[in-house]
Write a structure and sequence with these properties.
By secondary structure, this protein is mostly helical. The protein has four helices and two strands. The protein has one domain. The protein is 65% helix and 8% strand. A two-stranded parallel ribbon has the order 1-2. Residues 2-67 form the Glucosyltransferase 3-like C-terminal domain.
Amino acid sequence: MIVWSQAAIADFVKEQDIGFCVDKLSDINTVLDSMTEEDYARYLKNITALQEKVINGYFTKKAIRKAMDLM
């Protein structure tokens, strides 16, 4: 996943290690050129794990639990 470094989701992308952030579009090629196969494999592994969480409702359940705790 490639996101603008100032986007709201940028911290999430970094924390989950599912891609990289750039300041400007012209930075993308530089980052891609320096990306290793290991980097790509790590991103793929992490995004697959995140996909499972989304499919299984992890984030929805977490939000509901948090809301219930506030009641």
